[in-house]
Structure formats: structure tokens, C-alpha cells
Amino acid sequence: MIKKLTYLRLTQMSYLFILLAIIGCDSDGQPQPPLTPSTPTLVLTDTQEYYLKISLGTELTQNSSVVRKWGQDLKVYVVDTTFTELMKELRQIVTEINDLSTSVSLNLVSTRAESNFLIYFGDGQTYATNYEPAVASFVESNWGLLWVYWNANQEIYRGSMYVDTERTESLDCQKHLLREELTQSLGLMQDTNDFPASIFYQSWTCSPQYADIDRKLIQWHLSSEIKAGMDRANIITLWQP
Question: What is the pLDDT of residues 40-52, one digit of tens each?
């Protein structure tokens, strides 16, 4: 009886020694470094999630969900500059965007020939007929609209927008549409119902100013870190600490 107990004790000790040897050495008998926890998955903030919703894809067409942004400065031509209050608002918006951007800048130009972006104030039918035929089927149901073109690298190189000053009677609403469409022309082309104060709010609003969250989205989008063609995974990787 005593021999049996002694045998069991020795067997357990031998097994424990072998187990420790397996844990402590690699196949060549060299000590292994201690195990470290894997990198934790990034938990996105509400602002980061909002940026991904707004910046990936477009509202009017079915396209792959990647970032699209300008690869060059915007040279903005306004067809009719007699809309005094809207021109004043446009200059204010341009200043605000330029202050947030570290990649491209917006500049007002005096002729269409030197421009790569056009703004039309007036009725949708004239905008579609004379300036952007591709939007003919959209202007009836949209009192503000943008249309941009991008290359194979997802870089925007040309575009236009309009504000319907005939159907939109309120000046504040006209200013809101101007701010919204011009800002979305930067590549932030989606709308959501997440933040009522945001310029990207899908339902009709007339607030002629950016919310704090809008400024953050514009700052991210016009930074040099976020590139045209990035997808959701690329951006999240960029945000990893």
C-alpha cells in the first residue's frame, strides 16, 4: 500500500515537470517570453462613428463605401453674384472651412473657365439644363443639390451645386442649403438622423451654422492623414492608439 502511494506521487511530479518544460521552452529548448495580452479592439466614439457614416459612399448613387475627397484646391465660381446675403454667407463658409483644412483650400474665382466648382442660385430646371444635365431627374425633389466627379483614385476633381432660391423663401434656409451642399461637396456626402443640430441632418432644418461635431468631421476629412480611397477598416486602423 505504501509503495502504491509513493508511485502515484512520483508520477504526478513527473507530469508536472514535463508540463512546465513545455510551457517554458520552445521547440529548440530556448526560454519563451511571457505571454502578453492582445491589442484591444478600438471602441469608437460617437463622433468617429458619425464620421464613418457621413464620409463613406454617397447619398444619391450606389457606390462603394470609400472616402472621396478633393485632390486639388477648389476654385469656386458663382454664376450670379447679385445674391448679396448668400455671397456674404459663402465667404464666411469658405473662411470657416479653410480654417479647418490642412490639405486643400477653397478660393472664389471670377470666371467659369478658371473654376473646377460651380455654384448656381436659382431654379433647379435652369441648373440642370444649363450647368449640370446629370441632375435632371433629381432637382424636382431637391431644393439644394450637389454633383461631383472623381477619378479612379477616388479623388474629386470637378463639381457643382445649386440652391433653389425660388422655392426656398427663407433666407436662413437658403443659407443652410448653401452651407450643407458646399460642405458635402468636400466628400462628406451622406445624411443621417443622428444629430439634429448637425449640418448633415437628413430632415429639413434651417440652421445656418456648423455644430461642433460638424467642425470635427470637416477637420478630419480635410486632414492629410485621411486619404481618398480609404475604407472603414483603413480609417479605424489610423485611429488606433
Answer: 577 899 999 999 9
Is the whole model's pTM more than 0.70, yes or no? yes
Distance of CA 42 to the CA centre of its chain: 18
pLDDT digits (tens, 9 = 90+) for 187-208: 999 999 899 999 999 999 998 9
Q: Are 91 and 78 in contact (CB under 8 A)?
A: no
**pLDDT > 90: what percent of the chain?**
74
Give, in order, the Cα–Cα distances in Å from 44 to each of 52, 54, 81, 130, 161: 10, 15, 43, 44, 33
- 109: which strand partners? 77
* Span 213-236, pLDDT tens digits: 999 999 999 999 999 999 999 999
225: left (phi over 0), alpha (psi -120 to 50) or beta: alpha
Which grid cell sits at 153?
483614385
CA separation for the pair 4, 9 (Å, rounded)? 9
